[in-house]
Write a structure and sequence with these properties.
There is one protein chain. By secondary structure, the chain is α/β, with parallel strands linked by helices. Helix content is about 45%, strand content about 15%. It contains eleven helices and six strands. Helix 5 packs across helix 8. It is globular.
Length: about 325
């Protein structure tokens, strides 16, 4: 470290960066302490609620539950089934999130000036060299798609660099962290990947903050996604995160929520209900329900769905 290097203080930060620090900080005395046996009670409650739904699961198979699957099955079941049975295809909106998260990950340990375009280009080059399906798509996509992807990713990473202070190593920043809990004799598996976490638990005192980085605006299911992560984290290590928060890059705005035991209990009910609907649709052959909404615009069934077409026509007529 250069002796004459400037020391970052709150006066060096813009208002958005100061707000991040204000939202994420908490003195030790303000951090809740949870019961030592909390995760065992939560596990027992979830297994008791979910186990009856798994009767139709074929021998040797398991049921994976992700935040996306839960959100979809609690929405329009017809759209969920259509997307489950359609082959996955990379598109610019999906690819953008992957590139942005990799660029943010690189930025945390970047030792040079954090130029968003350079971070995005490095993220792109790393995935293009990968042998997986995303790398294959990147190497074969049109120049227009790649330019659009790069432009949108640079915009999002610029907003992150602009609105977030440097994340100090002492804060234990971790990006793209995978979390997993296996229940019901490994037949039910909850999995997730956290955009960004900061801090750690100390004994049974909560200390971790889990953050989802978002473009666009608030959607209620974003809160449910984070509650799902909080439950999996608690089942994994025994202590819930202190705080869960969506951060909306376009607005430089936090939507935080403190985690309490009631949060986790409510999430168990949502997960077990979701397991029931997943089993009914995927293994019991039940007819899916339809729930029209704004997402109808991107549904593969739209052209043959009277409810979806009528809903969108009503939206267009009454904006």
């Amino acid at each position: 470290m250069v002796d004459n290097a400037p020391v970052e203080t709150n006066s060096d930060l813009n208002p958005a960066q100061r707000e991040v620090l204000d939202q994420l900080g908490a003195p030790p005395g303000d951090r809740p302490v949870f019961a030592e046996d909390l995760r065992y009670h939560l596990r027992a409650a979830l297994e008791t609620a979910a186990e009856p739904h798994l009767d139709a699961l074929p021998d040797g198979e398991d049921l994976f539950v992700t935040k996306h699957r839960l959100a979809m099955v609690h929405g329009c079941e017809a759209r969920f089934l259509a997307e489950e049975t359609s082959p996955f295809e990379w598109r610019v909106p999906l690819a953008r999130g992957t590139i942005v998260h990799k660029a943010v990950e690189l930025s945390i340990n970047w030792r040079r000036e954090k130029e968003p375009a350079i971070l995005v280009d490095e993220a792109l080059s790393r995935f293009e060299a990968d042998s997986g399906d995303f790398g294959h798509w990147l190497r074969g996509c049109s120049e227009a798609d790649r330019a659009e992807l790069r432009s949108e990713a640079v915009d999002a990473v610029s907003k992150f660099v602009e609105c977030w202070p440097d994340l100090k190593p002492a804060w234990r920043p971790v990006t793209e962290s995978r979390v997993r809990a296996e229940l019901c004799d490994n037949r039910l598996i909850l999995v997730g990947k956290v955009d960004l976490s900061l801090g750690v638990a100390q004994g049974h005192r909560a200390g971790k903050v889990i953050i989802d980085l978002k473009t666009g605006g608030f959607v209620p299911v974003h809160r449910e996604d984070l509650r799902f992560y909080a439950l999996v984290e608690t089942l994994r290590i025994g202590v819930p995160p202190r705080l869960i928060a969506s951060y909306y890059l376009d607005q430089a705005h936090f939507v935080p929520e403190e985690v309490v035991e009631d949060t986790l209990t409510a999430t168990i009910a949502r997960v077990s209900d979701g397991v029931g609907r997943l089993m009914a649709l995927l293994h019991r052959g039940e007819e899916p329900s339809k729930l029209p909404g704004p997402a109808c615009r991107w549904c593969p069934l739209l052209q043959t769905c009277d409810q979806g077409l009528a809903h969108l026509a009503d939206l267009d007529n009454h904006p």
